[in-house]
């Protein structure tokens, strides 16, 4: 029998399948990476064992082939057995040091920007821009990360997000019918995107939200596209979509500045960044980063919720235990006899034992160090609220579906389920 703790362990493992870090050993790490990135000439630094594959393509074909298979981790497993936990390779046109060692990974994540800086595919850097929080380093990155992280942790925002999430989940679930399948992946994307956009720029569901969502989906298609920016190419279309979204955010920033009420308590991330008195955070920088920060609402958070439903569907024992716990919580009332509105849903599906297991296995689904996701608590909050309402409101039967691991984790058939509402 699989309990909830094991369920979450499996869930996190699946999400992390395609995540690798460009690292080497603690003692020779920095020098080895410099020898790779600065020059292709022979150096005195000893590299880890491994293979650089074929000329030009390296081991990219094998990597992608494994990523599309039922065992995407097989690329790493095979080389780990042959060369050790840290090995060299050549993927996506770049000499790469791959680490499957948790201690080394933690060392890299905890290092400052002088030792390691982020590296992304050319198409992604082209779309993100030089001022993206994903690409910048040093004091500016720490400043933006700190401001956004503090806001996302604020009790006021958590209370507001809890209310918004419950509202959006309820509105979505009220439309679900029992005579046709519900596509969980689509539903979670719609809910998570609305919640995150509300927290970033205070945009409510409506025509503008639908326009933004359409442009954002076009933008996302270019992140892992061929780095060719000519009219008609995906990268070009995605770039144009981002320009249109940035213009929308600029209009929102302009309206806030004209209103002249920046002294009030901030209600979204734009308020937090606009109120900064350092003059470093320009309107262009703020607008660009608002678009980049929307990515989890379309990608990682919906994936977390969708995979949770998949693994619950595959494990009746875990589903029964989670449902019982949440049914008890659903019956709680406040002092006035009203249902409680929890501002901390983390306890619903991420118990202390779950956190201990994740820590013991050194999983890092939200990054670490200076690159720790500033919306970590928000992501867990959203997932927990969705799971609570789903398991307490419905019984369901999931259709067979498979996980696609490349270029991003998703369900092949969008996770269709047949639902039946629970009787009170």
From TrEMBL:
Keyword vocabulary terms for this entry: Heme, Iron, Membrane, Metal-binding, Monooxygenase, Oxidoreductase, Transmembrane, Transmembrane helix
Disulfide bond as UniProt keyword: no
Subcellular location: Membrane
Chief location category: membrane
UniProt-listed Pfam families: p450 (PF00067)
The UniProt record lists the keyword Transmembrane helix: yes
Membrane topology: Single-pass membrane protein
Domain of life: Eukaryota
SUPFAM superfamilies referenced in this protein's UniProt entry, alphabetically: Cytochrome P450
TM helices/strands, residue ranges: 6-24
Similarity comment: family membership: Belongs to the cytochrome P450 family.
Matching PANTHER family: 3-EPI-6-DEOXOCATHASTERONE 23-MONOOXYGENASE CYP90D1, CYTOCHROME P450 26
Record-given protein name: Cytochrome P450
């Amino acid at each position: 029998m699989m309990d909830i703790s094991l369920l979450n362990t499996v869930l996190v493992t699946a999400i992390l399948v395609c995540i690798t870090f460009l690292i080497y050993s603690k003692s020779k790490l920095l020098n080895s990476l410099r020898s790779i990135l600065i020059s292709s000439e022979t150096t005195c630094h000893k590299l880890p064992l491994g293979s650089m594959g074929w000329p030009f393509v390296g081991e990219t074909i094998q990597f992608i082939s494994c990523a599309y298979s039922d065992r995407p981790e097989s690329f790493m497993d095979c080389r780990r057995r042959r060369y050790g936990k840290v090995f060299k390779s050549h993927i996506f046109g770049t000499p790469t040091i791959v680490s499957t060692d948790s201690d080394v990974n933690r060392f890299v994540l905890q290092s400052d920007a002088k030792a390691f800086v982020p590296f992304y595919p050319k198409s992604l850097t082209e779309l993100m821009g030089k001022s993206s929080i994903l690409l910048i380093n040093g004091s500016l990155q720490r400043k933006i990360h700190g401001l956004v992280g503090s806001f996302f942790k604020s009790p006021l925002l958590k209370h507001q997000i809890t209310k918004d999430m419950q509202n959006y989940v309820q509105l979505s679930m009220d439309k679900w019918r029992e005579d046709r399948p519900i596509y969980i992946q689509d539903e979670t994307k719609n809910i998570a995107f609305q919640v995150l956009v509300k927290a970033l720029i205070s945009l409510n569901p409506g025509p503008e939200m639908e326009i933004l969502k359409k442009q954002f989906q076009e933008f996302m298609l270019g992140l892992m596209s061929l780095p060719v920016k000519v009219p008609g190419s995906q990268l070009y279309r995605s770039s144009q979509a981002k320009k249109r979204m940035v213009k929308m955010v600029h209009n929102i920033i302009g309206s806030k500045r004209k209103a002249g009420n920046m002294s009030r308590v901030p209600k979204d991330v734009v308020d937090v960044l606009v109120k900064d008195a350092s003059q470093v955070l320009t309107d262009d920088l703020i607008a660009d980063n608002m678009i980049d920060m929307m990515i989890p609402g379309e990608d990682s958070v919906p994936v977390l919720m969708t995979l949770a439903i998949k693994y619950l569907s595959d494990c009746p024992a875990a589903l029964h235990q989670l449902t019982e716990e949440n049914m008890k919580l659903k019956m709680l009332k406040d002092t006035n006899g009203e249902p409680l509105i929890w501002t901390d849903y983390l306890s619903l599906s991420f118990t202390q034992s779950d956190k201990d297991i994740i820590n013991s296995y050194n999983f890092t689904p939200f990054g670490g160090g200076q690159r720790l996701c500033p919306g970590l608590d928000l992501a867990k909050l959203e997932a927990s609220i969705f799971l609570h309402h789903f398991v307490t409101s419905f019984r369901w039967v999931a259709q067979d579906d498979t996980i696609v691991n490349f270029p991003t984790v998703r369900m092949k058939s969008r996770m269709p389920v047949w639902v039946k509402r629970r009787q009170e």
